[in-house]
Design a protein that fits this description.
Oligomer: single chain
Strand content: under 5%
CATH architecture of the largest domain: Orthogonal Bundle
Number of helices: 9
Number of domains: 2
CATH topology of the largest domain: Arc Repressor Mutant, subunit A
Structural class: mainly alpha
Largest sheet: none
Radius of gyration: 19 Å
Length: 204
């Protein structure tokens, strides 16, 4: 927990409502982004984000015992996302026998740089929640392996294994688009053979 987070929490526990507002403004964006990529539904993500902060507000006396406020907040959001997915029956699988990739082999950075919004969302929809969450927490929220392990209540080795499998699946999913894009650079340009155009909107 950073000193500024701790100071705000202490003020909040002492009855300073503006301290809670400050925490909300600091973390609402990252929490919403995480929920949106987990649920692939902006309205549902907004609801879950708000519910996460309501729970923080109602359990203010537990905050200083949480170790990391950020991890505690993402844990609440994560659990609410999983509950929402269970109610909707949205479960998709990822094979457990996929071989791991190293960080240098992952194509995720290429995809983000290309801003292929629709492609990213299509890929995320193919992942089961347990693989989607580690990918989003690592690639988008820049949480450490230790923080992700705390959020998901898993070991660091399990987090790394899931992340590597998710990245490998991404590589398999992207291969046809990447190969088509590379072919498009050879000879005459053909827009229909390039990577799917980026959506005007940003990633949710």
């Amino acid at each position: 927990m950073t000193h500024s987070d701790r100071a705000l929490i202490e003020a909040f526990q002492g009855g300073d409502e503006f301290a809670f507002v400050a925490l909300y403004n600091r973390y609402k964006g990252p929490v919403y982004a995480f929920c949106a990529k987990m649920l692939l539904d902006r309205a549902a993500a907004q609801d879950v984000m708000q519910e996460a902060f309501v729970r923080v507000y109602e359990n203010r006396q537990r905050l200083l015992n949480a170790g990391s406020f950020k991890a505690y907040l993402f844990t609440i959001a994560r659990n609410q996302c999983l509950n929402t997915l269970r109610r909707a029956g949205r479960h998709t699988g990822l094979p457990d026998d996929a071989a791991p990739l190293t960080d240098s082999e992952t194509p995720f950075a290429h995809l983000l740089k290309a801003e292929q919004v629709d492609l990213v969302n299509r890929f995320l929809a193919e992942l089961s929640p347990e693989y989607r969450e580690v990918l989003v927490l690592r690639e988008y929220q820049n949480l450490s392996y230790d923080e992700i392990a705390a959020v998901t209540r898993n070991t660091v080795s399990s987090v790394k294994s899931r992340l590597f499998k998710a990245r490998r699946k991404l590589g398999e999913f992207l291969r046809p688009w990447i190969e088509t894009a590379e072919e498009g650079t050879e000879g005459a340009a053909d827009p229909s053979r390039r990577l799917v155009p980026a959506s005007p909107s940003r990633l949710v």
